[in-house]
Write a structure and sequence with these properties.
This protein has 10 helices and 15 strands. By secondary structure, it is α/β, with parallel strands linked by helices. The chain folds into 2 domains: 2-119 and 285-305, Rossmann fold, CATH 3.40.50.720; 122-276, Dihydrodipicolinate Reductase, domain 2, CATH 3.30.360.10. Strand 4, helix 4 (71-83) and strand 5 (87-91) form a beta-alpha-beta unit. Helix 4 (71-83) packs parallel to helix 5 (98-110) and helix 5 (98-110) runs antiparallel to helix 9. It is globular, with a radius of gyration of 22 Å.
């Protein structure tokens, strides 16, 4: 198999390295408009062919193209690749609108081509282990998903902090809370330096109030935090991605309500038991993602992180933008039409 990679900024070299490591890949061709980037990488990857023209990549005999460019270029680059019969790998977020994502999915389907969206965290040993724990029922019914992803920088010039940082944790949420239906989004944020929000809070509401998810993203924090807390009725879990050894900690703790006749008479008991940290697979996530992309092509199947998954994350991102612009208004996720998407519905009228 031959793989093309377009966009050799921060993430492109990582893609080159991981695709070169795949046994099924015979050749990698890398493309970027900036000659200085090509010159810098030629010595690092002597077995890779480097070119400047994307059209040359499209007309070559490669099987697939990985797109690692700014989000506003994803749609056009992916559409051209699909029209030329190439499978596509697209970095997160998939596109800058749900409509564009849907068009790419339909185009790929009509040509029997695969779309892979690089929600890298779903291929980490930690997230795989959390999914295993949830499927075993160890946490019990999930009550809430709480995420913090903050640091100092890096400011983006094309998207706000939600579009930059939230896709990671939104994709994790959708993967882990697979049996819960998200119905609405509320968000608030602030633009302290220019027109794009640098700090934001995003909440996802689920059908029948079965769960609640909250996301805090920030480019202007004095400390770097990458933490997710998942609370179940039986146990609770903390995933700290900055921990070197104990990334996952499971706490045998919770709350028991022995009477629900009234809030004043409710008997609340708190459980505090042992904590343990399970062993997780240390294989590089991007290596696993590259392998999945290749295998889904060879096996003619949809990948774990397909275009539809990417589109659903984009739908939440779009809704968050609308909510911020309307001072935290609840925005529906139930309709595919933009008009209905931003129209309050009776299903979550209690929130507004």
């Amino acid at each position: 198999m031959k793989i093309g990679i377009v966009g050799l900024g921060y993430w492109g070299p990582n893609l080159i390295r991981n695709f070169l490591a795949q046994k099924s890949v015979d050749e990698v061709i890398a493309c970027d408009m900036k000659e200085e980037r090509l010159a810098m990488l030629r010595s690092k990857f002597p077995n890779v062919q480097f070119i400047k023209e994307y059209k040359s990549l499209l007309t070559s005999d490669i099987d697939a193209i990985a797109i690692a460019t700014p989000v506003d270029t994803h749609y056009n680059l992916a559409r051209e690749a699909l029209e030329y019969g190439k499978h596509v790998w697209v970095e997160k977020p998939f596109t800058n609108s749900t409509k564009k994502a849907e068009e790419l999915i339909n185009l790929a389907s009509s040509k029997n081509l695969r779309i892979f969206v690089d929600h890298t965290f779903l291929y980490t040993g930690a997230v795989k282990k959390i999914k295993e724990i949830i499927l075993k029922g160890e946490l019990g019914e999930i009550l809430y998903f709480d995420s913090v992803r903050i640091n100092l920088g890096l400011f983006q010039h094309d998207v706000n902090v939600i579009w930059d940082l939230a896709p990671h944790d939104l994709s994790i949420m959708k993967y882990l809370l697979y049996d819960k239906k998200a119905i609405g989004v509320t968000a608030c944020g602030i633009s302290s330096y220019y027109e794009l929000e640098n700090l934001a809070q995003l909440s996802v509401h689920f059908q029948n109030n079965s769960c609640f998810a909250h996301f805090h993203v920030n480019w202007t924090s004095p400390v770097k935090i990458r933490r997710i807390i998942i609370a179940g009725k039986k146990k609770m879990l903390v995933f700290d991605d900055l921990e070197n050894s104990e990334k996952i900690k499971i706490y045998d703790c919770g709350v028991d309500i022995t009477s629900t006749e009234s809030v004043h008479n409710a008997l609340v008991q708190y459980r505090t038991g042992d904590m343990y940290s399970p062993k997780i697979d240390q294989t590089e996530a991007l290596n696993c993602a590259a392998k999945e992309f290749i295998n889904c092509i060879l096996e003619n199947r949809e990948p774990l992180t397909c275009g539809v998954d990417g589109m659903e994350v984009v739908r939440i991102l779009e809704a968050s933008d609308k909510s911020i612009k309307n001072k935290g208004m609840m925005v529906s996720l139930n309709s595919s039409s933009e008009e209905e998407m931003y129209k309050p519905s009776n299903e979550f009228q209690e929130y507004v």
